[in-house]
Design brief:
two-stranded antiparallel ribbon, about 230 residues, nine-stranded mixed sheet, Spore Coat Polysaccharide Biosynthesis Protein SpsA, Chain A, alpha/beta
C-alpha cells in the first residue's frame, strides 16, 4: 500500500530569508553538493518506492517545472499557484490531484531521515485523521512545539514559540486522511500551522517521534549546516 500513496511537497515559498545567499532560484532548488535540495527529498522517498509526487509550486515555478519535466523516475504532477497561498492554501489547491487516502505531505525546505514504512504503520494503527513526525529540539523559535499524551495523541500545537528545555517540534512530514479538507477554512490563502492544525488536533491527531535530526534550509546559517551534513542527507 505504501508505494501507492501520493506525496504532496510544498515548494511555493518565497524563501525571503535565504535570498542573501540564494537569489537566482527557488530555495527547493538550492544546491547541496551537486544535487538540488528537492532531489535529496525525492531520493529519500524513492527508497520506499514513493514515486507519485505532487509539487505545489509558485515562486519561480518555471524553474522547478523545467528541473523535473524530463525526470522519468517519478510520476510528477504540478499544482501551480499564481499568487502565494500559504502552506494550507497550497495543499487545498492540490486536492484534485490527490488520489490516495491517506496521503503524505512534506515541507519542501526541510528533511528528517525517517522510515516511512514505520510512519505509515503508525498512522494506520492509530486510526487518526493526521499523523505528524516530531523531532527533538532545544530551539523552537522557528518551529511548532507539540505536546503529546501517553498514547502519543497530540494535545497542543503552538507555532513558533520559545522553549527553554528540550521540546518535540513539528518536522514538516505528515500523513493525512482526506477528511482534513473538511476542516479547512473557506479562504484560499491560509496556513496549515496557524489556521488548521490548532483546530484539527481536537480530532485524533498523533505524533510520531523520531530521534533523527531535523534539518531545514530556511536561513543562510541552516543552509550552510545542511551543506556540511551532506553525507547524512544522502
Amino acid at each position: 500500500m505504501l508505494k501507492e500513496i501520493d506525496v504532496v511537497i510544498l515548494c511555493g515559498g518565497l524563501g525571503v530569508r535565504l535570498r542573501p545567499v540564494i537569489s537566482d532560484c527557488p530555495k527547493v532548488l538550492a544546491k547541496i553538493g551537486d544535487a538540488a535540495f528537492l532531489d535529496i527529498l525525492l531520493n529519500n522517498l524513492a527508497k520506499y518506492e514513493l514515486k507519485n509526487i505532487i509539487l505545489c509550486v509558485g515562486y519561480m515555478k518555471e524553474q522547478i517545472k523545467a528541473h523535473f519535466n524530463s525526470n522519468k523516475n517519478y510520476n510528477i504532477k504540478f499544482s501551480e499557484e499564481d499568487e502565494p497561498l500559504g502552506t494550507g492554501g497550497a495543499l487545498k489547491k492540490a486536492r484534485p490531484l490527490i488520489k490516495s487516502n491517506p496521503f503524505i505531505v512534506l515541507n519542501g525546505d526541510s528533511v528528517c531521515n525517517i522510515t516511512f514504512r514505520e510512519f505509515f504503520e503508525f498512522h494506520i494503527n492509530k486510526k487518526g485523521i493526521l499523523s505528524m513526525v516530531l523531532a527533538r529540539s532545544k530551539k523552537v523559535q522557528d518551529f511548532g512545539s507539540v505536546a503529546l499524551n501517553s498514547s502519543q495523541r497530540i494535545m497542543s500545537f503552538k507555532e513558533k514559540v520559545t522553549c527553554t528545555d528540550e521540546c518535540l517540534v513539528n518536522a514538516g512530514i505528515y500523513l493525512m486522511q482526506k477528511e482534513v479538507f473538511s476542516y479547512m477554512p473557506d479562504e484560499n490563502h491560509f496556513s496549515l500551522e496557524y489556521d488548521l492544525f490548532p483546530k484539527l488536533i481536537h480530532d485524533n491527531c498523533y505524533g510520531f517521534i523520531t530521534e533523527s535530526e531535523l534539518i531545514d534550509i530556511g536561513t543562510p546559517e541552516r543552509y550552510e549546516k545542511a551543506i556540511n551534513l551532506i553525507g547524512e542527507l544522502k
